[in-house]
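Write out the bound-state structure for zinc ion.
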Amino acid sequence: MKRTAIRGYGGSGRTFCVVLVLLVSAWTVGCMMKVEEPTAPNLLLITLDTTRRDHCSVYGYERGTTPNLVMLAEQGVRFDLAYAPMSVTGPTHATIFTSLYPIGHGVVKNALKLGLEYQTLAEILAENGYQTAAVVSSFALNGKFGYAQGFEEYDDDFGEAEPIFSDEFWPDHLNEGGLDRRAHHTTRQAIGWLDERRKRNQPFFLFVHYFDPHAPYVPPIPFAELYVDPNDRSDYLQYLTDLYDAEIAFTDWQVGVLLEALDKLSLERNTLVVLVGDHGEGLMQHGYLLHGPNIYEEAVRVPLLVRWPDQIAAGQVLSSPVEMVDLFPTILDLLGIEPPPVPIQGRSLAAALYGDEELDPERPVYLHRRPYKERMLKTLPKYNPQSVDSILVKGQKYAIRVGRWKYIEGAEEGTKELFDLDADPGEGSNLYSKLPEKAAALALQLESWRLSHTPDGLVQVPVSDEDEQRLHALGYVD
Ligand SMILES: [Zn+2]
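---
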């Protein structure tokens, strides 16, 4: 067993060298054969659920949570200011697949089906001769919600895989059939496809989604032992944060296992790897533990790494803002595929990746808070049923960031917030009443974007009662 990929985890001065026999016994790489590389480049797209940028050591977090992402960034490009359009799983993935904002494709919360009329990344790659496959890890990305479009294989059957969501955590909900699976099962499936079912004479697009950093935070034992003191819950938020960090570390380790398999199959050099978080997590920074209700920075800023050996110079750091709508046109551009004759709302970052162009530091970033029926949400849902603290959610919210300024508007909640992110990166001091003209200009720009990016006649397909119950089990509420 190689240990290099599991060194580097934990706090200062600690090295993780526990032999994770149980976790790796499910797969082997001994059977892998060296193969001819296809002429066209492959694409491996990895999404990490609920992974806050600032809890990844590749972005300077003081804990060693992501040594494999550090390695990936050293071999490729790290985007420092990458934004998810919303802090909800389904909508952000729909945006990655279509280059449309949630208001453009209509998936503004989980389980609103992505319409078949959209041209997805997988469909376009399939039309261009790619073998396509996906391995996802949450019911929120079930193929029935439209995400399987264009994939020859879409593995969303969690079968006997060990779940994160257990009856202990979710006694009142429908767990039959599985709501999710842990990262090592996901990795095993992905490597199995690469090794056994991939056609050697075709380029491939493999999409792999990891779910573990999503609540409940129940990291596997070796990682829990490294980050969490089970006997000290005096600071309950710190205890939860420790568990969350351990989940990120476990997921990072599995990313390393997957990338190592790519190497062993001699696919590393001819494969474009894009790794991105689907959204962040609140961790009580603005009164809420999880994600969904807020679009503050901790909820929407995500890791984004791109690696393509021999094609894109290694070790670059790009610090201007980019959005998830950019991934679709960027990937097609890099792979040399014409974009489809349909509207897209992102822009290609390929020239910046090749070093031919500077990104615009003043480019506006647009954010959207999913709609809620009016309700009070417990701030520590599930973990602490006795908690009396709660936040009001009602309707939708929108935000715009331009340079140092960020404006957030919640019409139904009656909130208007203006932040100077240079002086106040934690968004703690609302400057709206001090700088009303600045806020008004941003509000106008935001409204103009909203009107021009919402297509006429957009239809949102409703969810069934049973699926509603499953999603509620995952923590998603209306
Ligand atoms: Zn998610």
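---
Residues 49-50, 89, 278-279 surround zinc ion (CB under 6 Å).
The domain at 11-353 is CATH 3.40.720.10 (Alkaline Phosphatase, subunit A).
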